[in-house]
Design goal:
The chain is mainly α and about 190 residues long. The protein contains ten helices and no strands. Helices cover about 80% and strands about 0% of the residues.
Length: about 190
């Protein structure tokens, strides 16, 4: 691997270990074996390197989430199995969720991170609407957006609860039960 690839690998490791704000140039240099000039040469700045690593990590996690949502075995098992797999993924990738929640604080000042988050949300809304709302490619885009936003809110809220207080966080059965109760009482 070259310096660029080593820097990306190091940035990913540092993000997951220390987070965005706590990762220093010194950390990146030590973990990559490269030098500060390589960071500037390949990425322009430490922030741009970390943003690229964040994008790569989010893309990989998004692919995992979309695979869970599109798994035919889970489709037959129903929404509770899907939520169980989502919760398992949250637990397995806690560090990435922490980095993602940290990145929200950069949205106001970093257009690139804002765009990364916005695109990830768009993709997640569509996948969640398809998985939990049975809205396919021919569905009204407004319905897909609304249903997807609802389930995205559930996803993010569930993740935050699992990261904050796993002992009190909702189980997959709780999420599905509450969703059914909410839909039933809102009519």
């Amino acid at each position: 691997m070259g310096h660029r690839e080593n820097l990306i690998t190091a940035a990913r490791e540092c993000l997951l270990k220390a987070g965005y704000a706590r990762t220093t140039v010194r950390d990146l240099v030590a973990a990559s074996g490269a030098n500060q000039a390589s960071i500037n040469y390949h990425f322009g700045s430490k922030e741009q390197l970390l943003t690229q690593a964040l994008f790569d990590l989010n893309t990989e996690w998004g692919d995992m989430l979309f695979a869970v949502l599109a798994d035919p075995a889970d489709e037959k098992a129903g929404p509770e199995r899907r939520w169980a797999r989502i919760i398992e993924s949250i637990q397995e990738h806690r560090e990435l969720w922490f980095v993602n929640f940290e990145s929200v604080s950069y949205l106001q000042h970093d257009e690139t991170i804002r765009k990364i988050n916005a695109e990830g949300q768009r993709q997640a809304r569509v996948a969640l609407a398809n998985a939990f709302g049975d809205l396919g490619p021919d569905a009204d885009p407004k319905d897909v957006h609304a249903v997807g936003a609802h389930y995205y809110s559930l996803l993010v809220g569930t993740a935050l609860q699992w990261l904050t207080d796993p002992d009190e966080a909702p189980s997959a059965a709780d999420v599905v039960r509450a969703d059914r109760l909410t839909r039933h009482t809102s009519r």
